[in-house]
Amino acid sequence: MSDDDTDFGNFLIGFVVGGLIGAAAALLLAPQSGEETRMLIKEKSIELKDKAIETAEDARERAEEGLEIAQAKAKVALEEVQLRAADLARMTKERAADMEQRMTPTPPAPTEPPADTKA
């Protein structure tokens, strides 16, 4: 997940920097009057701002989706750990009871009186 965030962050930075460089190159190389150049700068800056906002919104949506996925996975993992802990607690109680039973001395079995041999 961290690599995806880094990759997307790098993409976003490259996108913005590339847009700025492209806009600057287009303005410097285009043969236009000062007024036309100012108008073009204004239009391109608005366009670039809109693209940056759109890209930021997409990034936010992706982050929210990633958060939801992470929360769901964490919930499943927590439930699994709780089940395992309950099983271990049950097994521990059973073994403790078994050991206690083994440690408790059992009373000797009553012995029968010797059978009368006179018959």
Classification by helices and strands: mainly alpha
Shape, please?
rod-shaped
Strand content: under 5%
Largest sheet: none
H/E element order: HH
* Distance separating the two termini: 93 Å
Task: Determine the oligomeric state from the structure.
Answer: single chain
> What Rg, in angstroms, do the CA atoms define?
39 Å
Estimate nothing, just give the exact number of structural domains.
1
**Helical content, roughly?**
over 70%
Count of helical regions: 2
Overall residue-averaged pLDDT value: 83
Q: What are the main properties of this structure?
A:
single chain; 119 residues; mainly alpha
Task: Please provide a written account of the structure.
This protein is mainly alpha-helical and 119 residues long. Helix content is 82%, strand content 0%. It is built from 2 helices and no strands. Helix 1 packs antiparallel against helix 2. It is rod-shaped, with a radius of gyration of 39 Å.
Sum this structure up briefly.
With 119 residues, the chain is mostly helical. The chain has helices at residues 2-29, 34-103. The chain starts with a helix and ends in a 16-residue tail after the last helix.
Strand-helix topology:
Elements: H1 2-29, H2 34-103
